[in-house]
Design a protein that fits this description.
By secondary structure, the chain is α/β, with parallel strands linked by helices. It contains eight helices and seven strands; from the N terminus they run H-H-E-E-H-H-E-H-E-H-E-H-E-E-H. It has two domains: 70 residues, Glutaredoxin (3-Layer(aba) Sandwich); 116 residues, Glutaredoxin (3-Layer(aba) Sandwich), CATH 3.40.30.10. The strands form two sheets. The protein has a five-stranded mixed sheet with strand order 3-5-4-6-7. Helix 1 packs parallel to helix 3 and helix 6 packs across helix 8. The relative contact order is 0.13.
Amino acid sequence: MKPAYAQAALEVDSQVPNAAIAAVDATKTSVLNKKFEIRGFPTIKYFEDGKFKSDYEGGRSKDDLVKFMKNPNPSKPDPRDEWKDLPGNKHVYLLDDSNFDEFINTKKRVLVMFYAPWCGHCKNMKPAYSLAANDVTSFIPGSYLAAVDATQNNQISKRFELKGFPTLKFFENGQFKFDYQGGRNKDDFINFLRNPVQQKTEL
């Protein structure tokens, strides 16, 4: 990411007044790491008028970074736009900070995909996840597939300490049970919800 970050810094210096892109070697700043709860790398945080405003969860290209610095407070995107062209999308329940707990607490079994819009692995997984949601709704009563844009829902992201995407978590009767570590195709998701047993990870 460093080359794109450096190129973006040059463009921001010349195109965006009163703005700058900076970097910190986190291996030498334990005080800052603790203050800002740094858990993984790279972590990008946005500051305005001397105060921390938000984590940056956008794309990692030069153009993405420059675009953000030109308009760091855009309107919140509608997550439905990312799913609308996928078969079965109406059966993927899109959750956010405001409705997550209510949904989880009122459903018997829920597999939740936490994703980032810029994540390539997430994009590759969405079609299979969406198709699986259609079959799960039709053939496995009481089970649901849901999704959360983790870049737009900081409360949920912090609660579950998300470190990478996609992350899939299984909930049953309102309680988090375990992380899903199975396959990523349609049948894998369907078979899991027919018999939701925690997969063993090899040591």
